[in-house]
Amino acid sequence: MTTPESGALLPRSVLRFVKHELRIMASLVRWAARRRHGVNGADAVFSHGGDQAVMMYGLAFACVVETVALSYLLADWPVVHTVFLVIDVYTVVFVLGLHAASVTRPHVLADGTLRVRQAAHIDVHVPLGQIASIRREARFTHEKKNDELNLPIGSQTSITLALTEPVSAPKFLGAPRLVQVIRLHADDPKALHDALTRAQAASAPATGSGASDRTRGVDPGHRS
């Protein structure tokens, strides 16, 4: 059972949930204003929401149809009608907000770190020096393992990062988790792969076997 922190009015898990909802709503505003989050000073930015757009719009449309149908069926029960109308409208907004979060919160390469994100709930910083290998591989099935983080978009991932040591990737409600493999998706996986390869090579020592070993550790080709 989660207990409130000392001096806190709400448990940490509740606060994380509330902050997540606020990020979803803020993403809608950013989406409308065509402003992305966390991209100032970035060396490169990689969008990842394109392959889910049709699915999310379809889901939102289905929710709208449900809202209209229930509104008609419950017209004779004003209280129930109001409750379900509020829930249904929020559901439509939430679905659009999830997609907006994916669009406005891309993966970001900056200052020797890859910032890996998904919607409004995943935000992991991966130092380039901790990346052992980078592979382009299309995956549509993913096993659940404690030390792996899978971030599919439209049920697929296209880039796999193997790390030399774990990075922190807390679960949704804040439970700690360390991962050593990250699978993510990008609308242009080749651009992400090539940018990481160049950035990692540039950050490696110019001489010595360590530099050549690290360069060989980065997969320069497609290993689907």
Brief write-up:
The chain is α+β, with helices and mostly antiparallel strands. The protein has helices at residues 12-33, 53-73, 78-104, 189-203, 209-217, and strands spanning 44-46, 107-110, 113-118, 122-127, 131-139, 148-150, 157-168, 178-184. The longest helix is centred in the middle third of the chain and has 27 residues, at 78-104.
Report on this model:
This protein has 224 residues and is an alpha+beta fold. The protein folds into two domains: 12-40 and 49-104; 111-217, no CATH class. It has helices at residues 12-33, 53-73, 78-104, 189-203, 209-217; strands at 44-46, 107-110, 113-118, 122-127, 131-139, 148-150, 157-168, 178-184. The strands form two sheets. It has a four-stranded antiparallel sheet, covered by helices on one side. Strand 2 and strand 3 form a beta hairpin. The longest helix is centred in the middle third of the chain and has 27 residues, at 78-104.
Overall average pLDDT: 87
Q: Order of strands across the biggest sheet?
A: 1-2-3-4
- Secondary-structure-based class equals alpha+beta
* Percentage of residues in DSSP E strands: 15-25%
Q: How is the secondary structure organized here?
A:
Elements: H1 12-33, E1 44-46, H2 53-73, H3 78-104, E2 107-110, E3 113-118, E4 122-127, E5 131-139, E6 148-150, E7 157-168, E8 178-184, H4 189-203, H5 209-217
Parallel strand pairs: 6-8
Antiparallel strand pairs: 1-2, 2-3, 3-4, 5-7, 7-8
